[in-house]
Amino acid sequence: MVCKKFMQVDVFSHQNFKGNPVAVFFDADDMSSYQMQTIARWTNLSETTFVLKPTSASADYRVRIFCPTKELDFAGHPTLGTCHALIESRLISSEKNEIIQECKKGLVKIAVTKPNHVKDWELSFELPGFSIENIDSSLHEGIETSLGITANEREKDPKLLKVGPNWVVLQLKDGDIIKNLDLDPLKLVKLSTEHKWSGLQLFSRSRDGTLEARTFAPASGISEDPACGSGAAAVGAYLSSFGEINLTLNLRQGRNVGRDALLKLRTESDGTDMNIYVGGHCNKCIEGEYHL
User: Fold this and answer.
1) What pLDDT does 119 receive?
2) Residue 98 designated active-site
3) Which residues form a coiled coil (predicted)?
4) Which of 102, 180, 207, 242 has its CA 20 to 30 A from that of 2?
5) What single-letter DSSP state applies at residue 237?
6) What DSSP designation does 256 have?
7) Are residues 122 and 244 in the same domain?
C-alpha cells in the first residue's frame, strides 16, 4: 500500500470551516485519470486537486482539478487552496512574490501578499483569459424560471462568461432576492446540459458596495458552491462588459449554506487589456495521508 501526503484547505475565510474546502492530494504523478475522478467523486467536495511535477519550465508545480463528475481546465478556489497547501508543506516558499501554477488552462500567476492585519499570507490568482458572449433573449425566461425570479428582479441581462468554467452571470436587484431564490435544480441541469454551461453565478450589490454572491452548478454535481473564485472573476468580467472597470470589490458568499466566505475581486484595464484578480485567505484544516 502506498501512503502519500494529503491536506484539506478552507479557502476564502479567516475562520476554519467557514469558507470553501478543497482536498489536495500530493505526489499524484502515478495516478490515473480514473483514480483521480474516483477520488473526487468520493470526497464529494466541489473540487479536489492532484499535485504533479510541472511540464513547463516556468511553473512551480502542476495541478489537475476535478469536481465530482468531471475534470476542469481551471477553477479559482482549488488554485488558491492547492498553492496554500504547498506553502504550508514548505514545498514552496511564502517569501516568493509570485508563484506559477500549471493546469489544463495553461499557466496561472498567483500573487503572495502579507497584509499588516494578517499573521501569515494571502493569495490571489490572475484569471488566465476569458471571453464574454450575449445570451439569446429566448433563454432569459428559462433562466428566470430556474431561479424562481421575474424579469423585474434582474438588474441586468445575463451573459455567458467563459473563464475556464462557463458561467452564466446575472446581477439581481437586491440581497433579499438572491437570499430567497426558489431554485428548480432539474430545470437548471437541463439548461446547463443543453447549452454546455457550468452553472449560474449570481450576485447583488449592497449599499456599501459589497457584493452578495451565490453559485449553482448542479449539472457538475455541485448544488451550491460555498465560495467560487472563477465565479467571482466572471463577475468582474461581466461588470466590465457594462463599462465598469478598474474595480476593487469584496464578495460575501456561502451564508445560505452556513458559510461566511470573503472573496476579494480586483479588475484593471488600460482600455485595451483587462486583467482580473481574485484572492483571499486560506486555512489548513486537515492534514494526513492517503492510501492507494
Assistant:
1) 64
2) no
3) none
4) 102
5) H
6) G
7) no
Q: In terms of domains, do 135 and 120 share one? A: no
Q: Count Cα neighbours of 60 within 13 Å in the Cβ-side half-sphere.
A: 21
How many structural domains compose the chain?
2
236: its cell numbers = 468582474
The Cβ-side half-sphere exposure at 121, using a 13 Å CA radius, reads 22
pLDDT of 117 > 80? The answer is no
Q: Quick one: 178 and 103 in the same domain?
A: no
pLDDT of residue 40: 98
> Are 7 and 45 found together in one domain?
yes
Statement: the pTM of the whole predicted model exceeds 0.85? yes
Residue in the block written with cell 486555512: 283
CATH number at residue 100: 3.10.310.10
DSSP 72-139: ES--HHHHHHHHHHHHHTTSS-TT-SEEEEEETTEEEEEEEE--TT-SS-EEEEEP---EEEEPPGGG
Verify that 135 and 274 share a domain, yes or no.
Answer: yes
Q: Which helix (H) or strand (E) holds 176?
A: helix 175-179
Q: Are residues 14 and 40 located together in one domain of the fold? A: yes
Q: Give the start-end residues of each E strand in the chain.
A: 3-11, 20-25, 48-52, 61-66, 71-72, 98-103, 106-113, 122-126, 131-134, 159-162, 166-171, 199-205, 211-217, 222-225, 248-253, 261-269, 274-280, 282-291
